[in-house]
Queue: 2 jobs
Job 1
Amino acid sequence: MTHSSVPGVRRSVAAQRVTLLAVAALIALPWLDADKFTLHILSLIAIASIVAMGLQVLLGYSGQLSIGQAAFYGIGAYTSALLTTKLGVSFPLALFAAGVAAALASLLMVPITRLTGAYLAVATLGFSIIVYLVIKNEEWLTGGSYGFISIPRADLFGHVLRDPISSYYLNVGVAAIVYFIFARIPGSRFGRAINAIRQDPDAALASGIRVTLLKSECFVIAAFVAGVAGSLYAHEVRYLAPNDFTFWKSIEILIMVVIGGVGSLPGAILGAAVVVGLPEYLRVIGDYRMLVFGAILIATMLFGEGGLAALCAAMGRRLRGWLVRLVPKLAPSDESAR
Amino acid sequence: MSAATADAGWLLEARGVTRRFGGLVAVDRVDLAVRRGSVHGLIGPNGAGKTTLLNLIAGAYRPSGGALRFGARDITRDPPGTRARAGIRRTFQNLKLFGEMTALENVAIGLHAATRSGFFDAVLGTPRHRAEERGIHEASMEALRFVGLAGIAQVRAAALAHGHRRLLEIARAIVARPALLLLDEPAAGLNVTEAAHVSELIARIRAGGTTVILVEHHMDVVMGVSDEITVLNYGRRLAHGTPAQIQEDAGVIEAYLGRSTESEHAQA
């Protein structure tokens, strides 16, 4: 028993170190390379990773396939834009309201959480299309195809986040909060229950788990963070167009989760980095991005269902093996860390 | 509720329970009364409707007719989750474990309804969550010890041997100390030693105050551990009595072995 529990402990120590390293790098980054463009792209990656982490809870943890997350993202973006421009609501409040609005909209999905697999996916897709059509056609509210312009910058405590460094810290900070909140789910009673639902809904039901209720809660959680991400996006880009929220966006979010590794939070972030970052740095692929994503998707699937997260973990283990062989001094310290 | 039913002596009563699948009547107006604190065997040839009856009691199927009473409560229309929370737990003939979870986590799922912590408790690490997690861990380990699986608590369920999986399902079903436990062929695929262990386990479960309905093909297990036995054949109740009575029952022997002339006809 103790023998089999050791690998788990060792992995979590290694994971903690990687997490710590990543956090340190993200904090230090603006001071190393304060290039405006890079910071903006990193902000967009952070925002996308929030939506992707929400879908990770929904799909990776509870096993519900949604291809409609762009709807909640859009609802959050427009809610925040409307509240700040039309009603003069402060940004932090609008950020929260955006999450709440998206969460409320997700309650419309409660009746369909009884659906599973392809039926659920198609229903969420339908919802995504409806929200897109509302955004596009209700010009009085959303600006329609002209877009929603002059959205103010984010502000915190009366201080407007003018420079890209502060908005970078805002977006990455919120993403980090979402990450650390969601990272607590798997080891908890709630996390075990939704995991059980994903693996065998009948057995979960027979164990007294309220399957429909918990599935709905996952929808609400995923929608809330998607709404929050939408708000961050609105104030980062400061211009919204209906085309940002088509069902292609929902597909992109799903691709982030799948190439990153279904069930892995770091995977969702990696996936967001690839899907958002790649087209920005490889302008050439512009019109062919879906084609490129498709190819990456197939390539990662060839390496197994774990996606990039599993691939990185495997590479990390191999790298560690090499390091230990090259620098034998490393080995004893690692042993003691166990 | 408990006081009223304690007087009656019956924990579960099925009256005229029927289940049709299209034209097939899988369970046909079956009466079943299970005494509180007993082990009630349910036997019959393949296709007799034993598992269907178990599914009707667990709530996996809605009856096409008849009524089910659990203690003082009419559960005929209750969905399976409600029945599970009311104290009816089950195992599955084809094993439904959570393969990616450890044995311990599988058992912990059985305590879900007995605890309250939700998403926010997990995120905030509330005292309630910590206390419940400790309680869940202790109770789950105890259930694993009870069935003899304490040594493999941290092993993933998918990696377990068949016999261990059967025991793990039982541990998950009893960890919340249900009033009624439905066992669907717990000894299927087990060798003689393992089957004997299951018999002994069922006796201990009953001693702990849980009433058991047992569907089983291993006659040694059923006859050895049951207080009463109901025999089903073609969806109908063929006989009911103590193990000794059932073993003497001419109708039962015929249903199992067939009349010699008939079986010859069937072969021809």
Note: The longest helix of chain A spans residues 2-32.
Job 2
Amino acid sequence: MLNSGISVLVEGINLQRLMLGLAVTVRIALISIILGSLLGVFIGLIRSSKSKVIGFICRFYLEVFRIIPVLVWLFIIYFGVTNLLNIHLDGEVVALIVFSLWGAAEMSDIVRGALESLPKHQMESGLALGLSFWEVYRYILIPQAVRRMLPGAINLSTRMVKTTSLVVMIGVIDVVKVGQQIIERSVLKTPTASFWIYGLIFVLYFIVCYPLSKWSKNLEAKWEN
Amino acid sequence: MEINWAFIVSSAPLYIKAAWLTLKLAALGIAASLVIGLLCSVVLFYRTKGLVNLVQGYIELSRNTPLLIQIFFLYYGLTKVGLTMSENTCAVLGLAFLGGSYMAEAFRGGIEAVSKSQIESGLSIGLSDLQLIRYVILPQAFAVTLPSLGANCIFLLKETSIVGAIAIPELMHVTQDLIGIYYQTFEALLLLVVAYLILLLPLSIGLTWLERKVRYAQFGN
């Protein structure tokens, strides 16, 4: 029974279709990681400013995205905002918006943590040595901060890749949706289709995420001292 | 934009019921993942032969795959090879599978924070392995671990939003239904957000407080 079912993976163009679905998943993840990181670094930098108002706004932004689950955000934009503004947004666009904003919120906290962990006297020492404000940033603070935040940032990327699996709930044809279509089409001929297809998707996600988390762990170990 | 308050009032009981279910599933999932996490961290600590690779493999699998796929595989996949479970069982198992590795990492961090000399001293005054865990490691590791355990609990509670995908009538599923049946999109989403805020805001504030306490205990500021 089990042995006969596995052929569903390679039947017809099933495997190609799953790979195309995976490409959609990876595309969404990649674009939102890039946009989220850029925005997150920017927010993290301005959060270190002394202004109480800016600090409060950034903190509020972070908490709002932390407390409400990402799936709820997808629903709010996909159903709520489109309804309110009477516009149509493609599921993939909604996913990009939500994941970028969420990623930026998490990223800003990583950046803030890295900057705050640097001893204050480094800036003063640098200035005392005659470096300019920007030279201190360029040669002293940023190289150290990058080391401290890169493992966290890569970990965040892994989380974002995993979270892209939710886009199936707002009608994006990603690897999960393609899998469901294949299962529905072949369930009469191959009753075990869902076991094999979901098993394969499970493995596919692992193949994408594992190298990332391994990389992050290695960097962390390397830069611990 | 007119808000249909009557609809909100009449739907509120549905959300209360769904919120209870969400809490119940999360509590069971968290309890199970605490047990799994503790067992895994003990195995990793003692480097128990044969089990270490198994535990490490499990942690990697669980951390590098999405909960949605884990649950789909449990619910739709395993039933086809003869292992049929109710959707609630699948949800709790999925949460436990996912949360176990996160809890294990949290415990590991705590155990590593207990200094080597204490463990060696404990052994040299004749404590057994179990006594060492019970009287030396756990009390100290627990305090250090508490914030990350709390963060994991909030994480798992939020992850329950996904189990609606296997037709469990929790908050997301109820919302999806109300939007689909009555088209009261705005009201349904409002109730959803309020429900999650009521569940998560106190926990999040509590966690911040806890982090400050533990930090104070460790560093004194």
Note: The radius of gyration of chain A is 22 Å.
